Amino acid sequence: MSTGTEPRVGRASEEAADLPIVVDDAAAQRFQVHRSAMTSPAVHRAEVERIFGKSWLYVGHESEIPEPGDFVRRQVGGRPIFMVRGVKTGNVNVFHNTCTHRGALVCRQDSGNSKVFQCFYHAWTFDSEGRLKGVPDRDAYAGGVDFDDLGLKRVARAESYRGFVFACFDPAIEDLTDYLAGAKDYIDLVVDGCGGSVEMARGTNQYSFGANWKLLVENSFDGYHAESTHDTYFKYLVSIGTDLRGGVSGGAVDLGNGHAVIEYSSPWGRPVAKWEPLFGPDAHTEIDRLRADLVARHGEQRAHAMAEVNRNLLIYPNLIINDIMAVTVRTFYPPTPDAVDVTAWALAPRNEPASLRHRRLDSFLTFLGPGGFATPDDMEALESCQQGFASGGVEWNDISRGMGRTPVANDEEQMRVFWRRWQQQMGTAADLAGAR
C-alpha cells in the first residue's frame, strides 16, 4: 500500500499533464482509474507492446506434453506459438509458430505427437528441437543460404516453475523465479496440496465475451462481488446442506511485481481435503485420508492452509490460479479493448482416483465452467460494465475500498497492486494523448 503523501498519476504528455489515468492518493485514501483505460484503442496498442510484450506469460503445463514429441499450440500474448517436448533431449521447447521460409503456421493442430513439423505451403520440415531437416529441391538454392540458420525460432525466453511453463518475448527480462517473487510460495501451496505431483486434466474451457481484460483481472480476485453476484450459487449450496453461517474471512497479500492474492476460509468444501455435502457421504473416508497425508507430509499448520484456505491468485499480468472448490488455471488475452478470449484448465493430482477426479471436475464445472453458476454471472457483470462505460457522464472507476485499514478479502488492495504495476509498465503510455 502506498505511504506517500502526493497522488501518483500517469501523464498523457507534457501538453496534457492534467489527464491522469491512474490516481493513487494515499493521503486522501483514494484510488481511481479513468475509464479510458478500458475503452481506448491507443491504450490497448500500448498494452500489447509494453505489457504483453515484456512480461512472463503462461504457456502451459509440462504435464500436457509428457512424452517426447508431444506438443500443444497456443496463442500467447496474441502471438501463435507452440510448445513441444524434444524427441532427442526431452527438453520443453517453445517456438514461434511460423515457417522461416515464407511465414505460414508450422504447427496446425492444437495438440498431438510428432517427430517433425512440416509447413504445408512449401513442405519445409523441422524436427522437435527446431532444426530444419527437409527442404524440397534444396539444390536450387544458391550457396549463400545458411539452412542451419533457418530452423524454427525460439521465443526469446522460456522457463518453468513447478511445471508451469512461461515465455517472454523480451530477452532482457529478469529470470522467471525473480519475476514470480512471492507468488512462488502460493504455487508451492497449490502443487504440494495436490501431493506434489500435478497434471492438467484433459480438456479446456474456452470462451470469449465483450469487456476489457483488466475487468476480468479485477473480477478474478474480487471478494466484494461474491455475495451479490453469485447469490444463486450460495442458495444452491444451502439447498444441498452446506452450512454457510460461518461466512468468509481472510485478507489480501501483495506478492510483488504486480502479483497478488486473496486468501480466505469459507464454509464450502475443497477437493484437496475438506468434505462438504456436495461430495456425498461416501467421500468422507477418502477425504480424511487425504487430510491425514497432508499433515504427515507438511505439518498441521501448512496442511490447514492447503486443505481449508481458499486462494484466488493473480500472476501478473493475465494468469489466474483459483484454488477454491477446484483448482482452476485461467489465462486470457484481449484482441481488442472491449473483448477478451479466455482459456481455463483444471489442475489435479497426478494418478488421482477416478472417484476423486470426477468430484473435482464436477466442482470445476459447477462453479467456474462457462455454463456454471459463476462464470455466466461474471460475464454478464463485466459486459454490463463495458456497456456502461459507453454511456458517458462518469469518467472514473473507484478502487479505494479498504485503503484505510489492513485489507480484508472483500477489499480492493489486490486490484490496486495490479494497477500500480500496470502504471509502472505503461509509463507515459498510460495516458496517451487521445486516449480519451
Automatic annotation (TrEMBL):
- Gene Ontology molecular functions: 2 iron, 2 sulfur cluster binding; dioxygenase activity; iron ion binding; monooxygenase activity; oxidoreductase activity, acting on paired donors, with incorporation or reduction of molecular oxygen
Q: Which SUPFAM superfamilies match?
A: Bet v1-like, ISP domain
Q: Which residues form a coiled coil?
A: none
Q: Which UniProt keywords apply?
A: 2Fe-2S, Dioxygenase, Iron, Iron-sulfur, Metal-binding, NAD, Oxidoreductase
Its domain of life reads Bacteria
What positions does the domain Rieske occupy?
Answer: 57-139
PANTHER family linked: 3-PHENYLPROPIONATE_CINNAMIC ACID DIOXYGENASE SUBUNIT ALPHA (PTHR43756:SF1), CHOLINE MONOOXYGENASE, CHLOROPLASTIC (PTHR43756)
Q: Which family is this sequence assigned to?
A: Belongs to the bacterial ring-hydroxylating dioxygenase alpha subunit family.
Instruction: Report the protein name in the record.
Output: Aromatic-ring-hydroxylating dioxygenase subunit alpha
